[in-house]
Design a protein that fits this description.
4 iron, 4 sulfur cluster binding; formate dehydrogenase (NAD+) activity; alpha/beta; binds ligand MGD; binds iron/sulfur cluster; 6-stranded mixed β-sheet; binds molybdenum atom; molybdenum ion binding; 33 strands; Barwin-like endoglucanases; disordered N terminus; globular
Length: about 775
């Protein structure tokens, strides 16, 4: 096979030197504390480091820039209301290393493309605005005024506003997101692809269809009142580490935990609480009472098998279903029960990849519980039938009456710290008409009504040459999206690409003819407008809106806040034609919040309530047992599935996160809990599969996908034996994104199927 030449869009294929240990038996504890400190004090001096940590997640400090797990409503530890990965995120952002034009004059864009993501991230904070002119090989300095003039002029010159695409990542504050969507809609398009399209979009669709709101229903407090917590397709030990403290407390209060995950994840098995002396000395709490190592994408048959078992028990002994809830609050139980009759129990079990006995045990756990919380994340959302998978989990909660009462409900655990808030603010390619009506009434311009591009549609439109300008508010579009080479071709077809960013990433290296980098303030930075320090606000995974105030001195005087960037861009593009007083809105962020209050329901007395310590909860129907569906009832749904068939040489690959990364930001090369050190180009395989394929542990292989008749190759991965079902393999995102086909996405939500990619494994030695 021909060797693929390296191109700037792909992570270099060089290996860094794998070493393996047995996977850890317990998560967090002292090693997590030492790791957090090493990252923070490696990136900045002690004074800055201590200040950063003392303000992290405090009611008067800044919100953790990492995940969206909520803070406790009541008491917070003054010295440590954060986790190892929160500390790493802060270290990554608050580093005092700086990247100026001088650096870019020494390294061409092509050269930087040969660096790993880890190396790119280690260079420090972007410290001044940068420009790559047409035909140039390097970025160079540019003044802010000139930059906005160029981008604004370009936007004005497009044949249609729909020829521009405006991406958003989920770290953007409510204030910045509201202003951004306002500008883009006044400019005239709904082309708002966002990271949510690749993340919890399937949850939003499934929950809207069944419960009438695209958000979860539980509060943190519900964890402490639950009988059973189901955790499906989520790795909280790495991705939402403080959830482990909530799970520990839940267990102390008598809850059981059912984990559903192809991989044995340490963070679901046991936890040593670093906030307690015992935990630091190694005392541990066992977490999962039962661990179902379901086959990748085996969740629908599993959920159906569980429902069928419950139904049978209901028919024989009764007392399993909550009939008063079902009769009063739901619709469609008859059709669901009919559907269950159609399925063969044994076949469902086989399709889930599990044993009869373990599924029966899990069903017994559900049967004997009254208050159940269903948690899930990317292991359920990134499949072709993701929406149906989540709806089937909702069916389980509904038959048990486990929505709208304490200790029970839905818990899609969000990723980015403000991804939920960005959607509330209108970052949505398919905005509700009522929202647009409000914009029109408040601001006096006609917002576009036609739906815009989501992420997959935006990439395809760019690929077809339909997009002149791509603008990103944060994120790393190239590396986060599927089919990396295809997306790279798409971006290269734009005339202009621009990124508002804190750190250098691969998206800056795959450009349109002209390219811009707009360096901005981050969560940890103090943000002064006029003479007054400002705060912003964010919404966590449980619908709490609260303030976040950066405290650290920015590493450069050239950084602008995201709201100020939007203001300047709007003025440069819309000029006197704008109906919005941009200067006023940004002069003090209270003014932006007043505009939000007038436009979006649930934000009454925003400025006052956001100043309350801990913030306020947004209204949530299902939490109160109210369902804003057409019938005002919660809807039982019928969900079909067809097992993914594999030939003898094919495997089903999930792309997952290591412990040392935040999405495409790579903090380090280790995945401590899984016992994988100093290497990211690994493929985790069942030992039997390794043997059957004639491979050995440590061998180097190439991975291929052939979806749609196109050959996609990710070269040079090292085989690592791991506990996961046969024919199921795992690699890290973003190294393996090049294998995720652009045309493989979830029905109805269009989320790329990053957890179910059919691949072949090509042994390096044999192919020559
Ligand atoms: N430190 C850190 N924190 C993060 C992030 C990060 O990268 N680093 N990312 C943030 C973001 S944006 C998000 S969305 C979240 C992501 O949080 P997670 O969803 O926990 O992240 P993934 O690593 O994608 O893990 C998915 C889990 O699903 C399992 N899984 C895969 N396929 C299946 C399946 O078919 N069925 C079932 N039942 N399980 C499956 C995998 O084994 C894995 O344990 O974390 C957020 N927090
Ligand atoms: N194969 C595969 N692909 C996936 C996933 C997967 O599980 N598997 N997960 C998907 C998911 S869940 C998500 S959410 C997406 C993530 O997609 P994105 O949100 O696009 O990616 P991130 O890696 O989170 O973005 C990191 C960059 O954001 C910038 N940044 C950080 N903080 C700030 C800030 O405060 N302001 C601004 N303006 N910029 C900032 C930095 O420059 C940094 O390089 O990836 C998706 N892609
Ligand atoms: S759990 Fe998430 S939000 Fe909380 S400190 Fe850790 S990374 Fe930050
Ligand atoms: Mo995400």
């Amino acid at each position: 096979m021909k060797k693929t030449p390296h191109s700037t869009e792909l992570t270099p294929e060089k290996l860094t030197g794998l070493s393996l240990e047995a996977p850890k038996e317990v998560a967090v504890g002292l090693p997590a504390v030492t790791s957090a400190m090493r990252h923070v004090f490696g990136a900045m001096d002690v004074g800055r480091g201590v200040k950063a940590l003392l303000n992290l997640n405090q009611k008067d400090g800044f919100d953790c820039p990492s995940c969206a797990w909520p803070d406790p409503d009541d008491e917070r530890s003054r010295i440590g209301e954060y986790c190892e990965n929160g500390a790493k995120a802060v270290a990554d952002e608050a580093t005092t290393k700086r990247l100026t034009a001088d650096f870019f004059s020494k390294h061409s864009i092509e050269e930087l493309g040969t660096w790993t993501d880890y190396e790119l991230g280690q260079q420090g904070r972007l410290a001044e605005p940068l420009f790559k002119p047409k035909g140039a090989t390097h970025y160079q300095a540019i003044s802010w005024d000139e930059l906005f003039l160029k981008i604004g002029t370009h936007l004005k010159s497009l044949a249609s506003p729909d020829d521009a695409v405006f991406y958003t990542s989920g770290r953007t504050s409510n204030e910045a997101a509201f202003l951004y969507q306002l500008f883009v809609r006044e400019f005239g398009t709904n082309n708002f692809p966002d990271c949510s399209n690749m993340c919890h979009e399937s949850s939003g669709v499934a929950l809207n269809e069944t419960l009438g709101i695209g958000k979860g229903s539980v509060k943190l407090d519900d964890f402490y009142k639950a009988d059973l917590i189901i955790i499906a397709g989520q790795n909280p030990g790495t991705n939402h580490p403080r959830m482990l403290s909530a799970l520990e407390k839940a267990k102390k209060n008598g809850a059981k935990i059912l984990a559903i995950n192809p991989l044995k994840e340490t963070g679901l098995v046991a936890f040593s609480n670093p906030q307690t002396v015992g935990g630091l000395l190694g005392a541990k709490t066992a977490l999962a009472d039962q661990y179902l190592q379901v086959r990748i994408n085996g969740d629908v048959p599993l959920f159906k098998a569980l429902l069928k078992y419950l139904y049978k028990a209901e028919k024989t002994t009764g007392g399993v279903f909550d009939w008063s809830f079902i009769k009063e609050k739901t619709q469609g139980i008859e059709a669901l029960l009919e559907d269950l009759e159609q399925h063969d129990f044994e076949q469902l079990i086989r399709d889930s990849g599990l044993q009869l006995k373990e599924v029966e045990e899990a069903a017994e756990l559900i049967k004997s519980s009254q208050n159940i919380i269903g948690c899930w994340a990317m292991g359920l959302t990134q499949h072709k039938n993701a929406v149906d998978t989540i709806r089937e989990l909702v069916n389980i909660l509904l038959v048990k009456g486990s929505i709208g009462k304490p200790g029970a409900g839905t818990c899609p655990v969000r990723g980015h710290s403000n991804v939920q808030g960005d959607r509330t603010m209108g970052i949505w390619e398919a905005p509700p008409q009522a929202f647009l009506d409000k914009i029109q009434a408040q601001f006096g311009f006609d917002p576009p009504r036609k739906h815009g591009y989501n992420t997959v549609e935006a990439i395809k439109a760019m690929h077809e040459g339909k997009v002149g300008l791509f603008f990103a508010m944060g994120g790393n579009f190239l590396s986060a999206t599927p089919d990396t080479s295809f997306t790279a071709q798409a971006l290269r077809k734009c005339q202009l690409t621009a990124h508002v960013s804190t750190k250098l990433n691969r998206s800056h290296l795959v450009t349109g003819e002209e390219a811009f980098i707009l360096p901005c303030l981050g969560r940890t930075d103090s943000d002064v407008q006029g003479d007054e320090p400002q705060f912003v606000s964010v919404e966590n995974s449980m619908g709490v809106v609260h303030k976040s105030m950066g405290k650290l001195t920015p590493v450069s005087a050239h950084l602008l806040s995201e709201p100020d960037i939007v203001r300047r861009l709007a003025k440069a593009t819309l000029g006197n034609t704008s109906k919005v007083n941009w200067d006023f809105l940004v002069q003090h962020y209270d003014h932006t919040r007043e505009a939000i209050e007038r436009t979006i329901p649930g934000f009454e007395n925003y400025n006052q309530r956001v100043r309350q310590l801990g913030g306020f909860y947004l209204p949530n129907g299902p939490r109160q047992g109210e369902f804003k569906t057409v019938s005002q009832k919660a809807i039982f749904s019928i969900n079909r599935y067809s097992p993914i068939m594999l030939s003898d040489t094919e495997y089903l690959m999930m792309t997952i996160r290591s412990h040392d990364q935040f999405n495409t930001t790579v903090y380090g090369l280790d995945d401590r809990y899984r016992g994988i050190f100093n290497e990211r180009r690994v493929i985790l395989m069942n030992q039997n599969d390794i043997q059957k394929a004639g491979l050995v542990a440590g061998e180097r292989v190439d991975l291929c996908n052939y979806h749609g008749g196109v050959t996609r190759t990710a070269p040079n991965f090292v085989v690592v034996p791991y506990s996961l079902p046969e024919r199921c393999v795992a690699t890290y995102f973003p190294e393996a994104n090049t294998l995720v086909p652009i045309n493989s996405y979830a029905d109805r939500s269009m989320t790329p199927t990053s957890k179910a990619v059919i691949i072949e494994i090509i042994c390096k030695e044999k192919k020559n």
